[in-house]
Fold each of these.
Amino acid sequence: MVRWRPADATTIVTGASSGIGRELAAQLARRGATIVAVARRAERLQQLQADAAAAPGAIIPMAGDLTDPTFRQQIIDRVQSISPRLDLLVNNAGIGGIGPFAEATPQRLRQIMEVNFFAPVELTRLALPMLRVASHPVICNISSVLGHRGVPGKSEYCASKFAIHGWSDALRAELASSAIQVTLVSPSTTASEFFDVAIETESAQSQHRRSAMSPASVARQAIRAIEKRRDEIVLSPGGKLLVYLDRCCPWLANRLIARFG
Ligand SMILES: NC(=O)c1ccc[n+]([C@@H]2O[C@H](COP(=O)([O-])OP(=O)(O)OC[C@H]3O[C@@H](n4cnc5c(N)ncnc54)[C@H](OP(=O)(O)O)[C@@H]3O)[C@@H](O)[C@H]2O)c1
């Protein structure tokens, strides 16, 4: 079986200023990859670069807003200045929204879909020509268990992750005759800044953060899935239980989520 190899790989990791994305970038740099690390907070990216200075790979900070089409093109231009090929694109940047749909604004839906769906999809469109010239490239989309099963209080977020899930499945099939693999990674609750910056309605404050995975563990498992060129992984026993219960016995999942979700 062909494996994806990080040594000397040219990669893009979005959302690299904190949480899962920061860990992904740091771990890939330790394995010898060059990472164009994308997020809005420039100082965080510079800190990541400094922390990874001794690693065999390299971090190249790229600060900007992924919802801006001009910035997305600048990311691709920057990669092209390093290498004619792109070996890995990790679409990780994302934001949450917590609280009932009926209490939320239309702007919340727009913002979540812009960051979690339109930005990664359009960045991928721009990246495809460079992925096509790599030998075993991977597009890794960081989705969520909530891209498999909807839960109350996170309707817009679930919708955005279902959209990424469906698009990933379709793109994987479209690219099946090429060398490009599409890997969908679905973490459960992870201890990051995600909940601090989620767009919340008032009644939603502080109903979050039960048991959480570490960003380092999520990143490790995502990189393993990339190396094995897996189609899809669901992380954590609770996440797997929810996804498979929903597939096998949706009526029971509906009842449990309505009661305890
Ligand atoms: N935490 C969880 O419980 C959990 C569970 C399942 C799935 N996930 C998914 O995992 C991914 C990473 O989340 P995380 O937990 O690591 O959250 P996080 O710590 O809040 O990281 C989110 C990253 O996205 C970046 N970002 C957000 N909006 C952006 C924009 N408009 N342009 C550029 N960068 C932007 C942020 O950087 P700046 O603010 O510097 O721009 C940050 O680096 C997300 O897709 C999330 O949906 C998270």
Note: Residues 106-132 form the longest helix (27 residues).
Amino acid sequence: MNQDLFDNVRRLVTTAAAGLAARRGEGLAEVLERLAQQDIGPGAFREPEPRSLPVLRHLPQCVGEAMVLDPRLASAIASVEDALQWQQSASYTDDLLGAGFSENYGWAEIIGPRGFFPGDDVLLGLLMLGPERHYRDHYHPAPELYWPLTAGSFWSRDGGPFVEQPQGAIIWHPSMALHATITRATPLLALWCWTRDTATPAQLA
Ligand SMILES: [Fe+2]
């Protein structure tokens, strides 16, 4: 086992949970309860095949910005960035989401089937979205929490207007709720969690 990576990943999970525990918002109690139930011991640890994506060119800027919000969390993210397996949903094409979307979008699991710990029907991960992007309305059975670590992202729920959410906001999407995200001048880095019913992927509306 890569002990340094194990230590860094555990620090990322525990720092994220501590950061969330210090906040108030819809869904937080459920997320914290589910995270506390996950096995993040050495027996559950494994190393996914690392995979990068074009959107990662924005990661240094995002991590720098996240340092202002939560320096321990930002440094924990930086310490595992070369080990993350970044993904894209196969159904998310530029035809559907706009030219250049696939070069400006990606997510990585920390806990989950593609992450460092398999989790028990829970996903914890990072999402990146480049500037000037519209991740349009989608939905999934899993209840979802987003914690944007950067400023200047706009969020819509249930087809409502897009509202700018500050760095560190707690954004909750109940099961099957429609939701969408827009970025403007700056890229977005967010921590996210699916608390249950994780087998069914997100579906564009
Ligand atoms: Fe979602």
Note: The mean pLDDT is 97.
